[in-house]
Design a protein that fits this description.
7% of the residues lie in helices and 6% in strands. It starts with a helix and ends with a strand. The chain is low in regular secondary structure and 485 residues long. The strands form 2 sheets. Strands 1-6-2 form a 3-stranded antiparallel beta sheet. It has a domain at 381-483. Residues 1-24 have low confidence and may be disordered.
Length: 485
C-alpha cells in the first residue's frame, strides 16, 4: 500500500481526525479539553483547538474547578478536594489561602493576628506561636525559663515562673514569705528587706549603706565598720570591746575597769591625765605645778610625796634633814636643821623636846620651861610588883635591878643611867610611877609606849599625883634610888 493510501485509510478510520490529504499529519494523542495543554500536538491547546470548540469546558464561562487554569487562579485541578495539589479555591495549598488544609486549625485568608484565625492558621491562644492581643510573647511552647513564659508574658520576677537568674518566683511582691520580691530566697544580702532586717543592699560590703548583717552601720551592730576598732554588739564597757567600739584602753573615752577617768586625749592637766587618773600629786603624771610625780607617797626617793624633787625647802623632811617647813617658820634653818626654841609651840623631838608648849598633865612631874622636858626629880618610887615589873624589859618577875634602872633613866634623862643602890619596899602613900599595864587607876599619863624612848624607857609612863598606895595597894616598889648621872 502506498503512503497516500495509508493516510486516507487512517483518516477514514479516525472520525473527524482532521487529516489533510494535502499534508499528512500523524497524531499521537487526542486533545483533552478539560486539561490545560496541547495533548494532540497540533499547536492548538484546549479551547483554541477546533476539536474543543463545542465542548462544555469551552462553551461555559471560566470557573475554579473546571480544570482550566484561568486568569487569577494559581491552579485548577478540576476537583473540590482541599489539601491535594490544588485547593478548591484554585490556590496552592498554604496557610492564608482561606482554605483549611491538613495541619491547619483554621484559615481566614488574611494576615491579621488576633481575629478568628492567626496568621499561622491556628486558633488564637497562648502557645500557638503567634503574639495575640493581651500576650507579650508567644514562643509556641509551655516551657518555663525560655524567652516566653507559659502564660505568654515576657519573663519577669513576680510572674510566678522561675526564670533563668531567679532563685524562686511566688507571683507576688511580698517580702519575707517563701520568695522575696526580687525573686531570691529570703536571706540577708539578697537585696530585699525581710522581717528582722533593718536594711539589705544586696552586697557583702561593710560600711556602706547597709552592713553585711543587714543593719545600718553603727557602733553596737556586731560589724566592725570603718573608724571602729571592734564591735561586740553590746554597750557594755570593760569586756572585749568598749561601748564606743574602741578596744579597751586608756584614751578611748570610755572609763574601763582600773581607770578613774578617760577623756579620750593624751593631754595632762585637763580633766583627766593621760594615764586615765584624775589630776593629782601621786598619779604618776607630772601635771602643771608639779616638779615630778613617781606615783607613790614615799619621800626621799626620786620624787617626794608633794611632787617636788627632794631638796631642803620643799616642805618635805627628806633623809638627812631635821626639818623642812619650806621657809614658813623660824624653827627650821635654810639648811633644814632644827632651831630648838622651847616654848615656840613646835615640838622638836630631835632637839630633845618632850612637850612644847611646856605644859604637863601632872603637877608633880612638871615640864622644864627651858628644855621642854619632863622633870621626874620629885618622884621617889616606881611600882614594879609582880607582872608590873617589866620596866627593864624583863618578863614581869617583880622588882629587880632593871626596874630601878628605869626609874634612874626617867629621873636623870640619861638612857645610860643606872641605879647604884635602891630599896624594894611596899608602896608608899606618896606620888609615884604607876604600873605600866595601861589600867588607869587614877594615874595621869605622860606618854605612851616609846614616848620616853630617848631616855631608854619603852613602857607607858603615868604618875599618881598623891598616893600610889591608895590605888595600887601595898605591892612592891623600887625606891630611894641612887643613880649614876
Amino acid at each position: 500500500m502506498s503512503a497516500a493510501l495509508r493516510a486516507v485509510v487512517v483518516c477514514a478510520i479516525v472520525a473527524q481526525g482532521g487529516c489533510s490529504l494535502g499534508r499528512v499529519t500523524f497524531r499521537t494523542a487526542e486533545e483533552n479539553c478539560s486539561t490545560t495543554g496541547d495533548e494532540d500536538g497540533n499547536g492548538l491547546a484546549d479551547c483554541a483547538d477546533p476539536v474543543c470548540a463545542n465542548t462544555p469546558s469551552c462553551t461555559q464561562p471560566p470557573a475554579c474547578g473546571d480544570g482550566h487554569l484561568d486568569s487569577g487562579e494559581q491552579c485548577d485541578d478540576g476537583n473540590a478536594v482541599n489539601g491535594d495539589a490544588c485547593d478548591n479555591n484554585c490556590t496552592a495549598p498554604r496557610c492564608g489561602n482561606a482554605e483549611i488544609d491538613p495541619g491547619e486549625a483554621c484559615d481566614d485568608g488574611n494576615t491579621t493576628e488576633g481575629d478568628a484565625c492567626d496568621t499561622n492558621c491556628t486558633i488564637p491562644q497562648c502557645g500557638n506561636g503567634v503574639v495575640d492581643p493581651g500576650e507579650s510573647c508567644d514562643d509556641g511552647n509551655t516551657t518555663s525559663g525560655d524567652a516566653c513564659a507559659p502564660d505568654c508574658r515576657l519573663p519577669n520576677c513576680g510572674d510566678g515562673s522561675v526564670d533563668p537568674g531567679e532563685q524562686c518566683d511566688d507571683g507576688n511582691t511580698t517580702n519575707g514569705d517563701t520568695c522575696d520580691n526580687n525573686c531570691t530566697t529570703p536571706r540577708c544580702g539578697n537585696g530585699a528587706v525581710d522581717p528582722g532586717e533593718q536594711c539589705d543592699d544586696g552586697n557583702a560590703a561593710n560600711g556602706d549603706a547597709c552592713d553585711t548583717n543587714c543593719t545600718p552601720p553603727q557602733c553596737g551592730n556586731s560589724v566592725i565598720d570603718p573608724d571602729e576598732q571592734c564591735d561586740d554588739g553590746n554597750t557594755t564597757n570593760g569586756d572585749a570591746c568598749s561601748s564606743n567600739c574602741t578596744l579597751p584602753g586608756c584614751g578611748n573615752s570610755v572609763i574601763d575597769p582600773g581607770e578613774q577617768c578617760d577623756d579620750g586625749n593624751n593631754t595632762n592637766g585637763d580633766a583627766c591625765d593621760n594615764n586615765c587618773t584624775t589630776p593629782r600629786c601621786g598619779n604618776a603624771v607630772v601635771a602643771p605645778g608639779e616638779e615630778c610625780d613617781d606615783g607613790n607617797a614615799v619621800n626621799g626617793d626620786a620624787c617626794d610625796n608633794n611632787c617636788t624633787t627632794p631638796r631642803c625647802g620643799n616642805s618635805v623632811i627628806d633623809p638627812g634633814e631635821q626639818c623642812d617647813d619650806g621657809g614658813a617658820t623660824s624653827h627650821c634653818t635654810r639648811t633644814c636643821t632644827l632651831v630648838s626654841t622651847c616654848g615656840d609651840g613646835v615640838l622638836d623631838p630631835a632637839a630633845g623636846e618632850e612637850a612644847d608648849p611646856p605644859v604637863s598633865p601632872s603637877h608633880v612631874v612638871p615640864v622644864n620651861t627651858q628644855t621642854c622636858r619632863y622633870d621626874f626629880s620629885a618622884i621617889t618610887q616606881l611600882y614594879c610588883n609582880g607582872t608590873c615589873g617589866t620596866w627593864g624589859g624583863s618578863s614581869g618577875d617583880g622588882c629587880q635591878q632593871p626596874d630601878a634602872d628605869a626609874l634612874c633613866k626617867l629621873k636623870t634623862g640619861n638612857p645610860n643611867s643606872t641605879a647604884t643602890s635602891f630599896v624594894v619596899t611596899a608602896a608608899r602613900a606618896a606620888p609615884g610611877i604607876c604600873c605600866p599595864d595601861g589600867i588607869e587607876r587614877g594615874c595621869s599619863e605622860l606618854g605612851g609606849a616609846n614616848f620616853f624612848i630617848d631616855r631608854g624607857v619603852a613602857q607607858r609612863v603615868s604618875v599618881h599625883e598623891t598616893d600610889l598606895l591608895s590605888t595600887h595597894g601595898a605591892g612592891s616598889v623600887v625606891a630611894d634610888v641612887v643613880c649614876t648621872p
